[in-house]
Design brief:
2 strands, single chain, about 180 residues, two-stranded antiparallel sheet, mainly alpha
């Protein structure tokens, strides 16, 4: 099996670079895994009705970036500001996000998670972990161990990829 190479694979052409096929496989697998985990478990948290996916992602982003703005959320999640605003209306109405005027510029609204947001997010993420654990339990030991060892590098990869998108992104969603 060809080993994945770091940064030089960015923009690799599958016609000329065999590692590009492997990167495509990894990208598709991560995308499919993410959707499968969210669907398998964690959609319900303590009997509360599930949040729409966009609201949940906005809530998670605000929790990770307290004091961000609507524009900051839109850029960070690669969403249109109008979609973020709609999600925030629902989150504010549910008591999951609070809006506050910026101390230096009253025209800017700062977003902060409530304690209820963290209490809502944690059981969902624990459900995702249960879904992964159940799937890993059915895998060959060496495969399951490899996946577990990949967790920290994949988290770092996600952070690097997200940071690159924030630097280079135009804020528009792509298919």
């Amino acid at each position: 099996m060809t080993r994945l190479r770091p940064a030089d694979d960015a923009g690799a052409d599958p016609e000329t670079d065999p590692a590009a096929d492997e990167l495509r496989l990894l990208a598709v697998a991560l995308h499919d895994l993410s959707r499968a985990v969210r669907r398998a478990e964690g959609a319900h948290d303590g009997g509360l009705p599930p949040l729409p996916p966009t609201e949940f992602e906005v809530m998670r982003y605000v929790d990770a970036h307290p004091g961000t703005s609507v524009g900051g959320v839109a850029a960070g999640l690669d969403l249109r500001q109008s979609n973020v605003s709609a999600a925030l209306r629902g989150l504010v109405g549910r008591g999951l996000v609070e809006r506050a005027a910026d101390a230096d510029d009253r025209r800017v609204t700062r977003l902060h998670p409530t304690s209820h947001a963290r209490a809502r997010r944690e059981p969902v993420e624990a459900g995702w972990a249960r879904a992964l654990g159940a799937a890993l339990a059915g895998m060959a030991t060496e495969d399951a161990d490899a996946v577990r060892r990949a967790a920290a590098p994949l988290a770092r990869l996600a952070a690097r990829t997200r940071a690159a998108g924030e630097r280079d992104g135009d804020g528009l969603s792509r298919p």
